[in-house]
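Per your request, structure below.
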């Protein structure tokens, strides 16, 4: 069966709230945003920085629910500045027939990284 890679989850335009160079590595994301975007802890994600064009891959760590936290950790902290706007995406390997019916989870948080009511 033919497999393809396609978009699974997308958090569109969130603001970096912190960058922690001393952490081992990863991106910390508010757990509310993770749930809404169908992203789980330790899942691989691609991070695209709209401010400087940087793209990087890392894994997700749960951030405190309801805080709006988006924190790049470790070496990734050098690729962002507080206030930068990011797009965070993950992908899925899926068979072609299933892919035709698959719908990715795409969310659009507000300027405070909160989900619209």
């Amino acid at each position: 069966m033919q497999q393809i890679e396609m978009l699974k989850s997308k958090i569109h335009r969130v603001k970096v709230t912190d960058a922690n160079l001393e952490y081992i590595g990863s991106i910390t994301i508010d757990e509310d945003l993770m749930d809404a975007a169908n992203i789980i802890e330790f899942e691989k994600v691609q991070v695209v920085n709209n401010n400087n064009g940087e793209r990087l891959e890392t894994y997700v760590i749960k951030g405190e629910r309801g805080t709006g936290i988006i924190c790049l950790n470790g070496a990734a902290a050098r690729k962002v500045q507080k206030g930068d706007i990011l797009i965070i995406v993950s992908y899925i390997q899926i068979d072609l027939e299933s892919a035709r019916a698959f719908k990715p989870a795409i969310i659009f948080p507000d300027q405070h990284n909160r989900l619209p009511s």
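The chain has two helices and eight strands.

Regards,
D.
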